[in-house]
Write a structure and sequence with these properties.
heterodimer, A: 646 residues, alpha+beta, 16 helices, B: alpha+beta, 11 helices, elongated
């Protein structure tokens, strides 16, 4: 019995210690630095280096760093319940390129390591377990701790006194060393942080501290946000993650983020995802509680949510064919458009507020009306895996849930089922990753690049995509094949802003892509332009700007480019890189530019057709799938936009 | 006696129960006396306040505190009634959560830090994990087969002669780097598997090739090839230590489970019916 009492009281001490740590922070005279309003440095100023040598003082990002900003492990309640046993530690080891055994017992490894990962277990119910700390006799060797323990064991009054002593000792930095030891302060959150600290290796692999705030407004309207920390343990552990037990309102999340920054001096950003499952709420043109948008609200949203996850295992949210009627590459491409997260059917008018492209357009209109653009976001891609495996590759697809890890029948089973409303296994998407143009592989540098939106989403392959806007790019810049040097010297990268055009000039774009050496050749690069016309109407247009096999493929009379062809052999789930090009580069000038109109431009890179994960399944398991199951895909990347704001 | 008891897994198990429910009882001291009475003790009140502060980073106002208390009371009533009805039993969330908490307790028994001898032994027995990969310095001239058609071989041969004569040859325009100073995985990331494999056996010095990559073909001049080798403990200490502790933790967990498992006789009804047919 004595032993049990020790457990209990030490457990209690841990709780009190945890809660007191936060309070002590407020009383210990820490200098609070509010750096929330500092804008990222103007990239032009940052990169421009006069002088002969184009390489001298070269500070620009040299290669994109690929990672997954959306990973769940067995620590997420829904993942754990559905059989995921892998921990955040397993997930990070996997992302770093190690072989692990999946929850269903299958060995699995990535084709090559990722550069970074953000494990984003749901904050809801990730909750504290500090109350059940082990009653380690070691602790009782410390006289102070022994005394506190005894006080707590005596009565609650004495226990409260002991608590205050702990608070004071913390404030005065006089806590017994044994208590400061991290092993006494482990909640799931603390333990998660510990794991990320252990595997985070600057300049080799970045493991972000992060979590998902999972707001399902109205019971299933997906308003989820991944919260990414720029900082390390010392700041992250000061405050517990926000949960939806406190609030489902994104405005409260922003408030929480603002308070966090003020308190710790650190920085946070949030990445919303699955607009496609929000039943019209992700980009609704009003505030969460129903009031009309205000300028302050729009500014807040832009500040806290610089990126949007446009593709993941539950489909893409870049564009919908019913909204972008001329976009042949949106048709049938990874659409989960029947309902919300619980497949509650959509009603007319919902689709208009779910997809990135439409939201980017709406943002221009809101900016016109209110003076601030709430939807000025760049693009990211993640997996949203719920088995700890960031396996977004078509030929290595371990799916979202443990139940859908490789098995002959997974294509035909129900991936999600609510009553008679079903999403079939084959509808799951093999996607995606985020390419980040960071100057180095550290939390701070990657986060800074995310904050300035210098990112792009991919459906899984790791193609290199450069996209710059300016007024002085010429064909010669494309000929040099060093797009970064001309790009940063003469323009702004993806995610940036173009100021009002000089008289008589139109925006020019330097755009380049190099294929993923593990994946298909490139079909084409498109620039997607959205603008607010002079009648206040929102418009969009897609331009094919450069394409593979250019000697034989032309724009036809109907304005469409000749299709690139198809080499996929479904029997063996293979293809050949005999069509398309390994790299594409061009300079494009907007032929329809009106300097008075607000606009944005982003690039979409398409690969040649390659086998979809379903085709690899069919070939490997020798199963025949229903003819409606797509077997071929065109992998793609979409960049953050560049905005023109006169 | 106490020490032996502390190591007893079953006791740990009871301790978890005691903590989950016992700690609860402690915080509601007094309430245990009368089953229909709920006392929100000062300690509990303080706890609610502090929890609020830890999340919201400010003190709760009086109305907010009242909401916290109301919620707490409601939760407590539902909790008690639920427990009375046995709703905690066979609940997958509760089962999983309790199990996870127990795992955490086991893991928190931090083993003593490994000694250098331990680390060296681990490194020696897992040398393949701590390979420092080959490192290269190379220059490459790229040819896109699509731009040369039938003349590809002849034009590569001509380029090779020029290079051998010390002349500059630019090859086809490309965004691929003309030179690379990097480890094998970086070469693989940039040029693909086939090219990286070819580097392993390419002689150092002179212009070699053509070497095929995911992009086309290349003439390659390798000026440095540091072969793969096993890292020394000094080079890989952090990684070795992390892996060894990780492995030991897994062993501890497995041993703990084995010990618990030995206490139970498990009988699966109709076990023969679920066994997969052989073959």
């Amino acid at each position: 019995m004595k032993a049990i009492a020790t457990y209990v009281s030490v457990g209690l001490a841990s709780v009190l210690f945890l809660v007191s740590a936060a309070q002590a922070q407020q009383t210990s005279g820490t200098v609070i630095t509010d750096i929330g309003d500092i804008q990222p440095a103007d990239p032009k100023k940052f990169y421009k280096e006069p002088g002969y040598s184009p390489y001298a003082g070269k500070h620009f990002p040299e290669r994109p760093l690929f990672g997954d900003e959306h990973v769940h492990t067995g620590w997420s309640v829904d993942a754990g319940l559905s059989g995921a046993t892998l921990t955040p530690e397993d997930a990070v080891r996997f992302a770093r390129g190690e072989q692990v055994t999946s929850s269903s017992g299958q060995p699995v490894r990535l084709s090559r390591p990722l550069d970074w990962v953000a494990v984003t277990d749901h904050s809801d119910a990730m909750g504290t377990i500090a109350a059940i700390r082990e009653g380690n006799p070691e602790m009782m060797k410390d006289a102070t701790l022994k005394r506190w323990h005894d006080m707590m064991a005596t009565s609650l009054e004495e226990g409260t006194k002991a608590t205050m002593e702990v608070v004071n000792a913390q404030a005065n930095k006089k806590l017994p060393p044994a208590l400061v030891d991290p092993k006494w302060a482990r909640t799931f959150w603390d333990k998660n942080i510990e794991i990320m600290e252990k595997y985070n290796e600057p300049n080799r692999f970045t493991a972000f501290i992060s979590y998902e705030w999972t707001s399902n407004a109205g019971g299933g309207d997906n308003l989820h946000r991944n919260v990414i920390y720029r900082d390390n343990k010392d700041r992250a552990q000061q405050v517990l993650p926000m949960t939806t037990f406190q609030s489902e309102n994104p405005e409260d999340l922003w408030k929480w983020m603002a308070d966090w920054e003020k308190k710790t001096g650190g920085q946070l950003l949030a990445i919303p995802h699955n607009g496609n499952l929000s039943n019209g709420r992700m980009f609704e043109l009003r505030m969460f509680m129903g009031g009309p948008m205000t300028k302050d609200w729009a500014q807040q949203r832009q500040r806290w949510e610089p990126l949007f996850e446009a593709i993941q295992m539950k489909g893409q949210s870049e564009s919908h064919p019913s909204l972008s009627k001329t976009d042949e590459f949106a048709v049938g491409y990874e659409l989960w458009d029947r309902g919300n997260l619980v497949i509650k059917p959509k009603t007319p008018g919902m689709l208009e507020h779910e997809y990135a492209r439409q939201a980017l357009k709406d943002g221009l209109k809101v900016e016109q009306d209110l003076g601030a653009n709430p939807f000025k976001f760049g693009l990211a891609g993640g997996t949203d895996t719920h088995n700890g495996l960031t396996a977004a590759e078509e030929d290595n697809y371990f799916a979202k849930f443990v139940s859908a890890e490789p098995r002959p029948d997974r294509w035909n089973e129900d991936a999600m089922k609510f009553g008679d409303r079903v999403i079939k296994g084959w509808e799951m998407t093999g996607a995606g990753y985020t390419g980040v143009w960071a100057t180095e592989n550290t939390r701070a540098a990657l986060w800074d690049a995310m904050k300035r939106r210098e990112t792009y989403a991919t459906s899984g392959p790791r193609m290199i995509v450069r996209f710059f806007g300016g007024y002085d790019f010429t064909k010669r810049d494309a000929g040099l094949r060093s797009p970064a040097i001309a790009g940063y010297n003469k323009g702004v990268p993806m995610g940036g802003d173009l100021a009002k055009a000089p008289a008589g000039k139109a925006p020019t774009f330097l755009i380049a892509a190099v294929k993923d050496p593990f994946s298909g050749n490139l079909d084409r690069i498109q620039i997607i332009k959205g603008w607010l016309d002079k009648n206040g109407k929102l418009q969009e247009k897609i331009f094919d700007v450069v394409w593979g096999d250019a000697d034989t493929r032309k724009v036809q009379a109907n304005g469409k480019l000749t299709p690139v062809g198809n080499t996929v052999d479904l029997e063996t789930a293979s293809w050949t890189n005999t069509i398309g090009d390994p790299e594409l580069i061009t300079v494009w000038k907007d032929p329809e530019f009106n300097p008075e109109l607000k606009a944005f431009y982003y690039a979409r890179v398409l690969e040649i057709p390659t086998p979809r994960w379903t085709a690899y399944d069919a070939a490997y398991f020798r199963v025949k799938m229903d003819p409606k199951v797509p077997m071929i895909t065109q992998e793609r990347a979409f960049t953050s936009p560049i905005w023109y704001t006169p | 006696m106490i020490h032996r008891l502390l190591r007893e897994p079953l006791l740990h198990f009871f301790a978890v129960g005691a903590l989950l429910f016992g700690a609860y009882g402690m915080l509601h001291q007094g309430s245990a006396n009368s089953p229909d009475e709920i006392v929100v003790s000062r300690g509990q009140l303080q706890n609610l306040r502090l929890q609020f502060e830890r999340v919201w980073q400010r003190s709760a106002t009086a109305p907010e505190l009242q909401v916290l208390i109301d919620n707490f009371v409601k939760e407590e009533i539902f909790y008690r009634e639920g427990i009375t009805l046995g709703l905690d039993r066979d609940d997958p969330v509760v089962r999983r959560r309790i199990g996870q908490k127990l795992e955490f307790i086991v893991e928190s028994a931090v083993p003593p830090p490994p000694t250098d001898v331990d680390l060296q032994a681990w490194l020696d027995s897992h040398a393949e994990r701590y390979q420092i990969e080959p490192d290269y310095s190379l220059r490459q001239v790229y040819f896109d087969p699509a731009r040369h058609g039938d003349k590809l071989a002849a034009e590569i041969a001509a380029a090779r002669r020029s290079l051998a004569a010390g002349k500059e040859v630019t090859g086809d325009a490309t965004m691929l780097p003309p030179s690379l100073d990097a480890a094998a995985t970086e070469a693989q990331r940039v040029f693909g598997n086939e090219f990286a494999d070819a580097l392993k056996t390419l002689p150092v010095g002179g212009w070699q090739g053509p070497v095929t990559s995911a992009f086309g073909v290349h003439l390659v001049s390798l000026t440095r090839h540091d072969p793969a080798r096993t890292a020394t403990l000094a080079e890989a200490r952090a990684e070795v230590e992390r892996d060894l502790i990780h492995a030991r933790l897994q062993q501890t967990n497995a041993a703990f489970y084995d010990k618990l498992r030995a206490k139970y006789a498990v009988r699966v009804e109709g076990a023969s019916a679920i066994a997969e047919p052989a073959g």
